[in-house]
DNA sequence: ACCTGAACACCGTTCAAGT
DNA sequence: ACCTGAACACCGTTCAAGT
């Protein structure tokens, strides 16, 4: 709030004329940015869904603070609704039954959002995000590699696979997992399909 | 930090003798709490996996601040490793190929963590979390119900399904989606299976 | 050597006082 | 009626000074 106010050459109190709190400000900024998502192209639905979700992911990676905000307070602005609609539309185009597709939208966007939030340094010391990222990765790697084979036999046996793959490979795999699972798993709710 | 220090009848500076920062303190507390997860029982692996993940979810729902911390800084303490090991072991027991199971552990725990973080009020005004929860739900419901049928036709057509299901039903469905997808989706990495 | 009081550098939010 | 300076009530972290 204080930084935004400063950029607008006023005091932080002035912002409260337009937004109720920081969460609302974040939501408004995010919805504005969502207008910049690439338009739908041509090609198979699966590819277009990938492009759309990656576009959203890129946006959230660029502004990790917004990813954290979007996680606790779901975006409900006009552009966010259009994003939901596009994801839902693509799943339906792919032949996913409506009830599964409806719940699946939530899951896909939750994954993209939380993945972006996860790979983000905590807000304050935002000076060197990639150094922080490396520190986190090597802390995890060290913990897994020095795992006790007695206490955690499966981890010890499969360290290389636990740590394997590039971030891009893992994201691609995870999206495939989600879409496959969504298409294959009936909901408990009766309804059209 | 200040609250913890006060509970220990000292100043906040004293804590920095034992931890480097707030993130480390959170990680230590979480790992301590993870020791209280229920032991593995008997029955089909799928049920035991559900019980384990729900136990973790309950813990994170009880301390939403820890869920947010665990999201940005992965737990790597001894008890966290045991949790990874148990989840990995159960997937392997279920016949999931090792490479998929290894990546799947990450995804399952990310989902549980981010779901807990999502359903948590922002830290400061933690007075009435359920009121905040209701406000968020009705804001989402209102946004979806008043969706423009022109701009977002799929959303307009499937509002009831988008909003349908109890939280418990959605969690159960999502876990099924994840496990189904994990078991069915080959990784891009060559290796044992 | 180990601990800590006090200060530093921030936050978001409120409200009385201004125009 | 609309805007905002200044204050309030917090944070996490540092470091010089104490024991």
Shape of chain A: globular
Which structural class best describes the helix and strand composition of chain A?
A: mainly alpha
Considering residues with a beta carbon less than 8 A from a beta carbon on another chain, report the largest interface and each chain's count.
A-B, 70 and 70 residues
Calculate the terminal CA-CA distance of chain A, rounded to whole Å: 46 Å
Count of distinct strands of chain A: 0
Major β-sheet profile of chain A:
none
Total count of helical runs of at least 4 residues of chain A: 10
What is the percent of helical residues of chain A?
Answer: 55-70%
Beta-strand content of chain A: under 5%
At CATH's second level, what is the architecture of the domain at 19-123 and 169-184 in chain A?
Orthogonal Bundle
Q: Remind me, CATH topology of the domain at 19-123 and 169-184 in chain A?
A: Tetracycline Repressor, domain 2
Low-confidence stretches of chain A: none
Oligomeric form = homodimer
Strand and helix map with partners:
Two copies of one chain form a homodimer.
Chain A: H1 2-7, H2 22-34, H3 45-62, H4 64-72, H5 78-93, H6 98-118, H7 129-145, H8 153-157, H9 159-163, H10 167-184
Helix pairs in contact in A: 3-5, 3-6, 4-6, 5-6, 6-10
Chain A binds a DNA duplex (19 and 19 nucleotides) through loops.
